[in-house]
Each structure stands twice: as structure tokens, then as C-alpha cells.
Amino acid sequence: MEMKVLFPGGKRVISTYKGFTVETDQPTSDGGEGSAPEPYDLFLSSMGTCAGVYIVYFCESRNIPMDGLSMTLQFERNEESHLVETIAIQIHLPPGFPEKYRKAVVRAAQMCTVKRSLQHPPEIIVSTTEPSE
């Protein structure tokens, strides 16, 4: 698998992967134009959307209606490192959600691949290359 990352100008950085383009920018306070989410915001969003899709699979496989189902994520950052130290995911169940599935839907959200990747992080290797002549 390969992702291409391009630098179109300013603080904007764009990735292309699996036929999709993801644009990022920095806020104006950091010299960007604020035209797109910051990369770290996309990382945090990936946690919520990943857990969310596992909930969707769970509900679909049991024919549980998802009307009124939602989630919120709250982030606690370390003041010194500026890194998120805690992510609290709260699943808001709609009225009538089957009581017998309350714990199971939490387990489904915990299966999120992004979460599991953080618990067992990959090795990240950074190198440079020059164009061949």
C-alpha cells in the first residue's frame, strides 16, 4: 500500500490514497489559511469514525435501528507535550435500544482498528530519497 503526499503551497498538505484526496491546512494563527482540517484533527476524527463504523456493523448485524444513535469524544491533552492523553468515547443510545446489547455495543466500539493500532503502534521509518537521473 502506498500513499502519496503533496505540498501545494502555504501550510497545505494533501494526501492521495485509494483514489481519495484528503486536504489539510493549518489555522490562520499558525500561518495557514484555515481552509481544511489540521492533520491532527483528522487523526482524532479517525478514532471516532472508526469506532462508529464498528457500531454500525454491530447494529446492522442485529437489525437494531440506529435512529437517534450518536457518539461524542472528549480529549484531554497534556499541557506540556500538547499530546492527547485520554480519549473518552460516549455512545448515546436511542430510546428503546435493547438492554441486553448495552455492554456488547461498547465492546464493538473498542474493536476499532485505529484504537488497536495505538495500543500496538507500528514502527515508523522516515528516510529521504533523491530523484534518479
Q: Can you give me a brief rundown of this structure?
A:
The chain has 133 residues and is of the alpha+beta class. The chain is built from 3 helices and 5 strands, in the order E-E-E-H-E-E-H-H. It folds into 2 domains: 1-37; 38-122, GMP Synthetase, Chain A, domain 3.
Strand-helix topology:
Elements: E1 4-9, E2 12-17, E3 20-24, H1 39-61, E4 70-77, E5 84-92, H2 102-110, H3 113-119
Antiparallel strand pairs: 1-2, 2-3, 4-5
Can you walk me through this structure?
There is one protein chain. Strand 2 and strand 3 form a beta hairpin. Strands 1-2-3 form a three-stranded antiparallel sheet, with no helix packed on it. 5% of the residues are buried. It is built from three helices and five strands; from the N terminus they run E-E-E-H-E-E-H-H. It has two domains: 37 residues; 85 residues, K homology (KH) domain (GMP Synthetase, Chain A, domain 3, 2-Layer Sandwich). Helix 1 crosses helix 2. The longest helix has 23 residues. The protein starts with a strand and ends in a 14-residue tail after the last helix. By secondary structure, the chain is α+β, with helices and mostly antiparallel strands.
